[in-house]
Amino acid sequence: MELERQENVMVVCHQAVMRCLLAYFQDKSAEDLPYLKVPLHTVIKLTPVAYGCRVEYISQNIEAVNTHRDKPGDVCRKRSTAEALSTVPPHY
To answer: Taking a C-beta distance cutoff of 8 angstroms, is the pair 36, 11 a contact?
Structure first.
């Protein structure tokens, strides 16, 4: 829609909501959505370009833990507990 390119908008939101917005504007699948990197205390600037958006991350230099989890190679429901927990960030 062209309406989303009419005016500047600032959104302050939770990381989960930002992942949804980034997935929408970057044409990512629902499967990729939980694994999009959304750092805490960061301004994410989206600039419309032909066939997509340019993404800029502007850190606010506020100390915070990294809450990002990489997508596991094995997502089988029958995997072991150790395999399932292998992507948990070290601060947990």
So the answer is: no
Query: pLDDT tens, 31-64?
Result: 888 888 888 888 999 888 888 889 999 988 888 7
SS3 labels along 29-74: CCCCHHHCCCCCCEEEEEEEECCEEEEEEEECCCCCCCCCCCCCCC
- What does the alpha-carbon distance between residue 41 and residue 63 come to, in Å, rounded to a whole number? 8
Question: What residue spans define the domains of the chain?
Answer: 2-63
Residues sharing a CB contact under 8 Å with residue 36, sequence separation 6 or more, in sequence order:
19, 22, 23, 26, 28
